[in-house]
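Good morning,

Attaching, inline, the backbone tokens for the sequence recovery test we're adding to the shared suite. The designed sequence is right after.
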């Protein structure tokens, strides 16, 4: 489709919890090839972990004024309330951005967001350059999106599979991420399975840590809002609405952490016992000048120091826990806190 150079291109980055969306966005900002990029982040949870991670990247592409957080749980259900005013504000800047990136919540459906680009307030000024689905190759290989069917029961839909499939079917490009965690045979098997589920012509690109040439991902010129009807969804009959009552999250504040490795053992145990989908947050380690980041997907955890604590910053240890409805908050808190 011919690109409209009079409109600001917008890339929508979707993908399930923990797939690597924020890592990809950070890579794009750090390698922006001179583009003025504005970023809209939407999170499911009470702590804005992703925005905090991107603010800490320390590059010219991560300026606070260009990173906007919509902490409303799920952008796909509230496009009119917060999203439209933000888009109008960005498009109306004296020097508008060259490109806008939207990082959706891991539980968001991209199709209602794409449809919103037909709204009169913005349709003449912005266009959906492409929808990119980031896929955790290891989660697919482990059957994460199929296993929930058994626990949901025969009379209940599988909410994980529904969200995952909707994200796939709206995509113009799929990044099969975390490829370094699978061997070649398993990776080929996952890619073949995904190919059968995608719309015709959608390419799969294998990535590690979200590393991809920004010129490949930005500038697709898809104008996705013009063919939204060709992007099927489980929720078309409900006008794009979906039920977030299937998921819940809560924030957990911890004291200073003497040994993060010991805490990781407890988090793994909590994730195993309570089928937690995602744990992420920051830790205050005594004697360390830098903030310690925790990223957990199921029972897989990754920890690292990302930046110095600011002199005027309140050092704290905070986690957000996300899972299916009915999380045993007291049990999880007791296991993690020890």
């Amino acid at each position: 489709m011919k690109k409209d150079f009079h409109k600001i291109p917008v890339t929508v980055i979707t993908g399930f919890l923990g797939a690597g969306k924020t890592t990809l966005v950070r890579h794009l900002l750090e390698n922006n090839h001179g583009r003025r990029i504005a970023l809209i982040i939407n999170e499911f949870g009470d702590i804005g972990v992703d925005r905090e991670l991107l603010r800490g990247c320390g590059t010219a592409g991560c300026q606070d004024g260009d990173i906007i957080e919509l902490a409303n749980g799920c952008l796909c259900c509230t496009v009119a309330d917060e999203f439209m005013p933000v888009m109008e504000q960005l498009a109306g800047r004296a020097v508008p951005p060259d490109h806008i990136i939207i990082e959706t919540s891991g539980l968001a459906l991209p199709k209602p967001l794409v449809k919103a680009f037909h709204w009169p307030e913005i349709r003449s000024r912005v266009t959906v350059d492409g929808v990119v689905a980031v896929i955790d190759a290891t989660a697919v290989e482990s059957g994460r999106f199929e296993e929930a069917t058994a626990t949901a029961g025969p009379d209940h839909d599988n909410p994980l599979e529904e969200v995952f499939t909707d994200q796939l079917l709206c995509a113009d490009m799929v990044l099969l991420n975390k490829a370094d965690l699978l061997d070649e045979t398993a990776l080929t098997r996952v890619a073949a399975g995904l190919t059968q589920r995608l719309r015709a012509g959608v390419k799969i690109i294998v990535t590690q840590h979200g590393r991809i040439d920004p010129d490949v991902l930005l500038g697709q010129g898809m104008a996705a809002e013009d063919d939204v009807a060709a992007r099927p969804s489980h929720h078309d009959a409900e006008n794009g609405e979906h039920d977030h009552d299937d998921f819940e999250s809560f924030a957990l504040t911890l004291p200073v952490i003497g040994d993060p490795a010991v805490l990781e053992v407890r988090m793994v145990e909590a994730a195993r016992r309570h089928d937690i989908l995602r744990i992420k947050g920051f830790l205050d380690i005594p004697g360390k000048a830098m903030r310690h980041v925790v990223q957990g997907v199921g029972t897989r955890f990754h920890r690292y120091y990302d930046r110095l604590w600011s002199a005027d910053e309140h050092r704290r240890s905070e986690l957000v826990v996300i899972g299916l409805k009915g999380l045993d908050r007291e049990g999880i808190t007791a296991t993690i806190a020890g």
